[in-house]
Every structure is written in structure tokens, then in C-alpha cells.
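QA checklist item 7 of 12: single-chain prediction sanity check.
[x] sequence parsed
[x] length recorded as 542
[x] structure emitted
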Amino acid sequence: MMTSSLWLAMSGPAALLAASLLPAIKPDLSQQAVNRMAAVASGVAGAAAFATAIGVATSGALHTPALAISGIGFGLYLDSVSATMFCLVSFIGAIVLRYSFTYMDGDPGQIRFIRLMCLTLAAVLTLAISGNLLQFTLAWSATSLALHRLLVFYAERPAAVIAARKKFLASRLGDLFLVAAMLLLYAAFGSLDYESMFSAAQAMRGQGAIPLGVQIAAVLMVFAGLLKSAQFPVHGWLIEVMETPTPVSALLHAGIINAGGFLVLRFTDVISLSLTSMDLLAVIGGFTALFGSVVMLTQTSIKVSLAWSTIAQMGFMMMECGLGAFAAALLHIVAHSLYKAHAFLSSGSVIDIARASWTPSPGCKPHPFRLIFSIAGVLLVTLLFSLLTGATPARQPGVFALGAVLLLGLIHLVANGIDERPNAYVVVRTLALAAVVAAAYFGLQLVAEQMFAGALPKTEALRGPLGIAIVSLIVLSFATVTFLQGMVPKHATEPRWQALYVHVANGFYVNTITNRLVLHYWPGPAPTSVPVRLPIVLREHP
């Protein structure tokens, strides 16, 4: 009974698709009528998502019989992973749509915008609950194509055009990788149905001999996921989509950008069969996280800073997958999506928030003994929770690596809290906050590991010297950045530090080079002006 009623999950994407198509069939519909249809469709999607989530929670993983010929067809597959993404996207989508009604009010293209938003959400929700790799691939491409229309909603804006072009090229390359992986997996398993594929992959894991075609398919899937998640060096389009309406940025950064991570998590049983694919995720994801975090610190634009933050967070999430912390990666997706949707939709009030916030004095430079005190206090708190939860480098390398980065951030927070004028209240409050953050981090990791235990493989231990080297390099890199961040205020007036700041603020010009290549080789008319960001130059005023 539950399996047959699972088809009701498709009512969510179907309602959103209908809300997208009906205004084209009946062009005389008023704006209010279109808004009401979109609101009802998003409500239906939310109800379907949470109803199926309850079914998964009570009955375990659910899947429909595949409507397929020779293993190629259509079906639904819901476990804790897909149910979580289904609920997350439908919830954020409903909020973003409601925000769009007011934000786009009076815009001549408002009906077209709402239609495109509904179409994009329908594609993403179909992606989340797909039960067949062919169906997943079609929804994957449909999501990208619908998003492309949103990115060029204001086609007269050069920055929007160049960002959409770069996104289009990266997405088509990702599509090519995914299709190639699909063909290899069909040749290996004889079916594209999830249930058959995952069972066969688990059997291969037990046998120990992994066919070369499956390993190549795993690597291709990883590349498709990396391209979708704006990983270095194809990250540039994500920081240039600010010419689109704010609801698009919120939906993109809070939902659609997670499609690459969802691909990796959905096909973890296949991807984890290849050590090469796991190492690629760890290395590229870790470097992107470091690169995005450093550049983000130098940005003055609120939305651009949020975009660099998204790049860094997607890097962290991919790194966690590469280190085997799959439950932590899914938790990261959920937390980041909720935070980033709120951040974009409330970005207009960030000035008021900053004015009401306490920050250390600009010239504050922690003295050595205060820095040592900060390190000792945060180390004690974090190591205590690490021992209590078992998140050790050998047992949970991904959780440990991200926890170490969290530790470094807490050290910086505590050092700033101590400031150059120690205050007992501020110091105690900051230390208490560090303890709460550490407790929340490790506590949520335990909850996520239990919640997704049936759908994701258990966290893998380090795989020899290479795994140890990757984790060590990640932790040492962020430790170096934390040290440099503390040194910048002291040497801010020195020419070499100012030069470094300029290079970092411009992302070491990787995106500028990409812009020039795309403008040179893209067939068709070019934008009226080249939206290449001008370098930031620091000058000392007399």
C-alpha cells in the first residue's frame, strides 16, 4: 500500500509543472492568478514532500516498481537521503516563491519569472526523487536549462550574459560526463534502476574486484558533480550571477548548487568503489574550500561575499564526501541551504545587523599569551567533544578535518574576543559560545550519522599514507590562513601585504582569464561590454 501511494510524491513536481505551463496555455491570466497557482503548487509540493518523509521514517526506504524496458525507464526511490532533499528543496522553494511575488511586483516580466521558477523547482524535485539513472539525467539537464533562462532573465545586462554562458558550458560538459557514466554503468549492471544498481555495487564491494568500466564511471560522475557545484577552476560563473533577481540567487545558492553534492551522495555506493574518485573529491574539494574561504575574506560586496562563501561551502561538502564523511556532507548541505537562503533574502538589512553587532577594534592584534590561551581553551573544549563522540582522525577523517577547521575559526573568535583590553564578561561569553558551537557540531554529526545510516555507507577510515597526507594538508592549509589572518592587521600598511590583498581580492585573476576565453570562443553575438571585474587597488590617502 505504501509503495503504491508513493506515486503521490510526483504530485509536487507535477503541480509546479502545471503552474509553469498553464499561463502559456491561457495568456489572459492575471498576475494575481498566476501567483495563487504558484503558491498552491508549492504548497502541494511541500505536503507531498513531508508526507513521503513520514513514510520513509516509519517504513524505511521506499521505491516503486520501475516502469522500464531493459532496466531503462522511470521510477521513484525515496530513502532518508532523497526524502531530506525533497523536503529541503520544497521548503526553500515555497519561501523563495512567496518572496518573489513581492520582489517582482510591477516588473513587466513577472509572470514569465514565476513560470521559470516553478519549472526549475519541478525539475529539481524530480531529480531528488528519481529512481532511475536515465530519469535522473533528464531531470539534471532540465534543471540546468531552466536555470539558464533565469540567469538571463535580464538579457540586456552583460554580466548576466557572461555568467550564463560560463554556467552553460560547465553544465553541458557535466551532462556529457554523466551520460558517459550512465552508459558505462548500464554496460556493467545491465540496468539503470537504482535498486538493481545499488545491490550490484554492494555485491562488487564484497567481492573486492571492481571492473574498470565502473571505476571510470565513478570518476566521470565525480567530475559531473564538481562541475555542477562550481568547484575550482570553473567557479567564476557563481560570483557573477548577481545581475539576476535576488530570488534566483537565493534558490541557486540554497538549492540548485547542491545538485552536484546530491549526485555524489545518491550514487555513493558506486563512487566509493573507486579510490581515485574519492581522492579527487577530497583534493579538489579541499582546495576549493581553502581558495573560496580566503577570497571571501577580502570582498566588500555583500552578495559577492556570499557567493564566495557558497563556493567554499560546496568545497567543504565535496571534501567530506572524499574523506568518507557522507552523513556529515548531507548535514552540511541542509545547514548551508537554510543559512544561505536566509542570508540572500535578508541581504538588504545586513548593514543594520552589522551596526548592531559587536566587533573588535580595527587595530586589535592579540598578544602571544592571549593567542596561546585561546588555542589551549578551544583545543580543550574541542578535544573533549571529539573524544566523547569518537570523531578521531583514523575513524572519521572527514568529520575530524572539518572539526579542525572549526577549531581554527573558534581560536580566531576567542582571540578577537579577548582583544587588547581584556574583559572578563567578554572572555567568558566568548569561551562559552565556543563550547556551545563545538558541542552543536559534534552532536549534530552523531545525529546525522544515525539518521542516514541506512542510506549512506559508514564513514570510512583513512586509506593509507595518501589519506593521511590529504587530511594533514587540509588542516595545515587552514592553520596557515588563520595565522596570516591574525598577521594582516599588524602589517596592513606594508606594500607586499597590500599587493597580496589585491591579488586575493581578485581571486588571483582566474575568473578574468575565464571571461576572456569565453568571450573569445563563444559563438554568437557578444555582450555590449566586457563584464571583467576591475582589479582592486589599495592606495594610502594623505
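[x] summary fact logged: The longest strand covers residues 67-69.
[ ] second reviewer sign-off
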